[in-house]
Prior knowledge:
Elements (H helix, E strand, L loop, with lengths): L1 E8 L3 H12 L4 E5 L6 H6 L1 H19 L15 H25 L3 E4 L1 E6 L2 E5 L5 E11 L3 E3 L12 E2 L1 H4 L8 E5 L3 H12 L3 E6 L10 H13 L2 E5 L1 E9 L2 E8 L5 E6 L1 E4 L3 E3 L6 H4 L22 E3 L10 H15 L13 E3 L4 E6 L2 H7 L3 E7 L4 H6 L5 E7 L5 E8 L2 H13 L4 H5 L10 H10 L8
Parallel strand pairs: 1-2, 1-6, 2-3, 6-17, 8-15, 9-10, 9-15, 10-11
Antiparallel strand pairs: 4-5, 5-6, 7-16, 12-13, 13-14, 18-19, 19-22, 20-21, 21-22
Amino acid sequence: MANYDVVIIGSGPGGYVAAIRCAQLGLKTALIEKYKSLGGTCLNVGCIPSKALLDSSEHFYQASHQFSAHGINVKELSIDFSKMLKRKDDVIKQTVDGINFLMKKNKIDVFTGSGSFVDATTIRVAKDDGTNEDLKTINTIIATGSKPASLKGVTIDKKRVITSTEALKLEEIPKQLLIIGGGVIGLELGSVYARLGSKVSVVEYLDSIIPTMDRTLGKELQKSLQKIGFEFYLQHSVTAVEVKGKQVMLKATNNKDQKEIELVGDYCLLSVGRTPYTENLGLENAGVVKDDRGKIFVDDHLQTNVKGIYAIGDVVKGAMLAHKAEEEGVFVAESLAGQKPHINYLLIPGVVYTWPEVAAVGYSEEELKKSGRAYKTGSFPFKASGRARASMDTDGLIKVLADQQTDEILGVHMIGPRCADMIAEAVVAMEFRASAEDIGRMSHAHPTYTESFKEACLAATGNRALHI
């Protein structure tokens, strides 16, 4: 039986990053993955393939809707959807090959099969050929991620009623795509197909899309998505989804007046969040406790109730984000090596990769109001940005929330071009507890999108924005 300092179950961003950091710190490390391809949901059927298709579809949309305004005339524009999907698969392969290289470089032993606990220090790898291999370990990190959540009364057949996994590999562009859920995943995938010509209908139970983010962002994003053909049915409860041949019939009831609507589409994407994957891990054999939703209880050190067993990423509390899992993986690895790492969960940014992009960090305005904290706000619209006008990306704004007395930045909320990248400046500023005036007095290159962040900070310090 092989002996290890650390065995990690799951090779998604949290798992493989934890493995690399453990190996860097001199710990003998094993990584278990049930699929033949490393990288978990994010690399194979999540973050990476969705961004590949988002980029491809945005290129097409720009060519068909905006190139002429730039003086670029494109004749006989068409879509080779199979080639688009092949490029997406090539991106996945390149990324997965990179992870394989990193495992070899760091001398991490990789086992293919389903990992589960025999006891608190023994992990069994059940392989595809029916054989088992047991590993002895001092520490274990559970990093098994999550899977798409289901909705009562909706049967996922993976053909017409689909999850994000199937939406990434459809063989045709839907004429009409129905989406249940107005969260990040549904809106990103809906954007892909809307840009390619699909009519997209979103049914959301709550009164706003991306409801976990600042409400300003949801309102602005809804306006932008409607421009590319989205239609929204907010505050609607899905009552039935039925497949009839090559069509899907969806019925929903308005939560306010109880009026019923009926939508017909080629496909129905169920996108109502994700649930932690903690089944079939033999947690009971090790005595690890989880809640009724499947999330594993951990302490401030990400250790479960059993000494030496840790859990990270989607299987524990907090946002289900790849970069959050990575930070937790590094945190556990460094803790095992005797270091004193830290994570500020408030400053883990959230991003929606639509176009315009949406990004946020820190407190939302709703959270500050609820807590009773005195704050001030400043905003700057991209339509006032010279760089945004040059690129024809004038939708959206940046909103900065700062403490009323100290001017410390408490939250930054962006919707506009390249916000997924720009949010990093806000994270750095808040990590060092910068004030809005600090950012307002920093030189930002002109013309850039990031000037809009400076302008929003100037606005927050007391109506000092220069270009509005």
